[in-house]
Amino acid sequence: MKRPFLPLAMLLCLAACGSNADDTSTLLKHQAQTSAQEVIKAAPNGEWELEKALLEAKAIQSQYAIAGDDAAAAEFDNIFRQYIKEHNDTLANRIF
């Protein structure tokens, strides 16, 4: 079972440790791409698995918005969508 609090803990730890913008950007990109990969993997397993993966991705994106970083939340969404469009255009057309 996935632990949705882990990405938030990682994000807060990076912020607390005085990480620079490059570290945050790298983490954001990794999270967005990993979330997109999970959505692509879940798609063939039925609507329930697809919806679950989409909600998990949205939860990660929302952590940035909750932290007050709307630009990062938007960037997460852009990277997430672009990754799915590049790797499974049929799925992208279905969910976006």
Could you describe the 3D structure shown?
- By secondary structure, this protein is mainly α.
- It has one domain.
- The chain has five helices and no strands.
- It has helices spanning 5-16, 21-42, 47-66, 70-87, 89-95.
- Helix 1 packs antiparallel against helix 2, helix 2 crosses helix 4 and helix 4 packs across helix 5 (89-95).
- The longest helix is centred in the N-terminal third of the chain and has 22 residues, at 21-42.
In short:
The chain is mainly α. The protein is built from 5 helices and no strands. The protein has one domain.
Break the fold down into its secondary structure elements and pairings.
Elements: H1 5-16, H2 21-42, H3 47-66, H4 70-87, H5 89-95
Helix pairs in contact: 1-2, 2-3, 2-4, 3-4, 4-5
The low-confidence parts are none
Kindly estimate the percentage of residues that lie in beta strands according to DSSP: under 5%
Task: Calculate the terminal CA-CA distance, rounded to whole Å.
Answer: 26 Å
- Quaternary organization: single chain
Q: Which structural class matches the secondary elements?
A: mainly alpha
Short descriptors:
96 residues, mainly alpha, 5 helices, globular
